[in-house]
Amino acid sequence: MKLNVTVVGLALAATASVWAGTPAEDLIASNKCTKCHTAKTTKKAPSFADLAAKYKGQAGAEAKIVETLKTGGADNHDKVAGTDAELKAIATTVLATKPQQP
User: Fold this and answer.
1) 10 Å Cβ neighbour count for 15?
2) Is the dihedral of CA 50, 53, 54, 58 positive or negative?
3) What Rg do the C-alpha atoms of the chain give, in angstroms?
4) Residue 78, CB-side half-sphere exposure with 13 Å CA sphere
5) What is the rounded distance in angstroms from the CA atom of residue 33 to the CA atom of residue 87?
6) In 3D, which of 76, 98, 78, 75 has the Cα closest to residue 87?
7) Where are the domains positioned within the chain?
8) Which of 9, 47, 80, 101 to pair with 36, CA 20 to 30 A apart?
9) Topology of domain 21-95, per CATH?
10) 35-to-4, 6, 16, 54 alpha-carbon distances in Å
11) pLDDT digit string, tens, across residues 8-55
12) Using N-to-C axis directions, what is the helix angle for 84-95 and 23-30, rounded to 10°?
């Protein structure tokens, strides 16, 4: 019986991180960004890691992403609902995404 309780506890601990996201991750989920983007692989749109690589070292990268989120951009990106601070948090999360390791 003690083993079963331990296994259940470990399973819950492992899944808890899936449900507890950062505020930016919660916004990404609630705005359904993952409908087109994933963290590390191309889906319908570039991955967050690809976007981070594209903007790496560029001055104003965060502002460019925030503007795209606000307006939809030239590529018909869906507008994202949120305050400037929330959109900035999403941009920061995207820019911090690391590429997949080979």
Assistant:
1) 10
2) positive
3) 17
4) 13
5) 12
6) 78
7) 21-95
8) 101
9) Cytochrome Bc1 Complex; Chain D, domain 2 (1.10.760)
10) 37, 36, 22, 21
11) 343 334 333 343 578 899 999 999 999 999 999 988 999 999 999 999
12) 100
